[in-house]
């Protein structure tokens, strides 16, 4: 490390703030696990020490045991860096961990909240098979999506202990239509439209709205946050939800009739909001698209702006899978989105095709233009797209995270049992895999070439 001692101290502090929390679920093992790794000056991931660098839902191995992690599916870090929250689908709850200054995990005083979790967990309404969580920008609320219950729960966060509690008006759930009217699919929750099978959540930077990507409803839905208690409602007088305008198969019968059919959103899988709050991006795995919506900053309402769609592996001469969209490559089954801190570039991960697609973002229209080369694919598979190049260990690309300075991109590669590091050019947006052992950290199940890290079998999600 070069520079004056003061500069070195600032660098260490910055790196600690960029601490990455890597969440893994071992499909062949009974233990769901959470690991921690600290990026070095070049973006290198150094795995945390055993017993402080990982926690697991069962005893055994080098990790500390912690209840409530069965089926760990998502992870988020509070804005103050003090707490880590884990969505655990198997335990039907959200688990909380305190983060020490060096990055080590300790269990929160109130460890978890859920519908029917382990002993010591707080009971809550609407939590069952939690798959995604999002924190409000002010750090006061945590929102949890439960696909099996088609519900989104609002939880209050204690900034000191990190503990989560649930108050009145605590959840919303998809509306079920009958001759008696509309009722919520989950007892105790308020009925809203277009949230059946919520796969992902995103909060607007101003904290006024929550957006839901719903895989069963094939829709993106708008929820308004109360500035008083953080509770969620669906606004009146604006478009509440937008659903797919194409027929992906029999799942279409579950599309909410109250949603506006206006965009190719079959299998909506991920949602994110641009740093300036002007646009919302939704990935749709079945439609093989990323859809761009313009966002009204006052009402939160969305209007279709544009979309990009996979050109079916380059076999159609540039014809996209969805003809109303621009053709793109490397969007075989988009499941995760990441926008650079400066808002200039968007990255998309597709797990089954093992690819990462890169786009330049127009700050005015929000439109996406694919870079050249525009995508990376797993080095073990032949590149079928003309604009794709070999990018190392990408099989099962399930989640993405950018460092706070935008100089590195991190990828959870489920099928490779590893987290992969890419250097990023902030001007062009191009990402290049870091060479050698500095380029990835993985479990012992991984092929040789990565630094060894505990609890990294089949990583599902990543956060900083």
Characterization of the model:
With 464 residues, the protein is mostly beta strands. The protein is built from 1 helix and 40 strands. Strands 11, 12, 13, 14, 15, 16 and 17 form a 7-stranded mixed sheet that branches. The chain is globular and about 55 Å long. The two termini are 22 Å apart. The model is unreliable at 1-18, 26-30 and 249-253 (pLDDT under 50).
Give me some keywords for this one.
464 residues; mainly beta; seven-stranded mixed sheet; 1 helix; globular; disordered N terminus
What is the average of the pLDDT values? Answer: 80
N-C termini distance: 22 Å
- Helix/strand/pairing category: mainly beta
- Helix count equals 1
Beta-strand portion reads: over 45%
> What is the number of strand segments?
40
Low-confidence stretches: 1-18, 26-30, 249-253
- The value of Rg in angstroms is 21 Å
- The oligomeric state is single chain
Helix proportion: under 10%
Strand count, sense and closure of the main sheet? 7 strands, mixed
Tell the overall outline: globular
